Amino acid sequence: MADVEFKLNMPGLNELMKSSAMQAHLQTCCTTVQQAAGDGHGTRVGIGTWAAIGNVFAEDAKTAYKDYDNKGLTRALSAAGLSMK
């Protein structure tokens, strides 16, 4: 068998990972997790150096402590059918 050479088009990949379609998909995923987590959580989607980034976070200290104490966001991620792989 012949060796196969494979080269990524990094500028194209970065453009895809930062695209508005990727941001919209991340916003959908973040909103799903936010709803599963309950009140006191917010979402943020932005653009990093190489890709779009989505976050779900506790909006206040009380919610953050509750999430820490009972793994609230991890459970919400699982309930939303997503994982941290």
Q: Could you please describe the fold and organization of this structure?
A:
This protein has a domain at 19-32 and 41-85. The protein has a two-stranded antiparallel ribbon. The chain is built from four helices and two strands. The protein has helices at residues 10-18, 20-37, 61-70, 72-79, and strands at residues 41-47, 52-58. Helices cover 53% and strands 16% of the residues. By secondary structure, the protein is α+β, with helices and mostly antiparallel strands. The longest helix is centred in the middle third of the chain and has 18 residues, at 20-37.
- The total of beta strands comes to 2
> Distance N terminus to C terminus?
34 Å
Strand proportion, as a percent range, falls in 15-25%
Q: Count of DSSP helices?
A: 4
Low-confidence sequence ranges: none
Rounded mean pLDDT score: 91
Helix content estimate: 40-55%
| Biggest sheet strand line-up | 1-2
Q: Based on helices, strands and strand pairing, what is the structural class?
A: alpha+beta
What coarse outline follows from CA principal-axis ratios? elongated
Order of helices and strands: HHEEHH
Question: How is the biggest beta sheet arranged?
Answer: 2 strands, antiparallel
Q: Indicate the radius of gyration in whole angstroms.
A: 17 Å
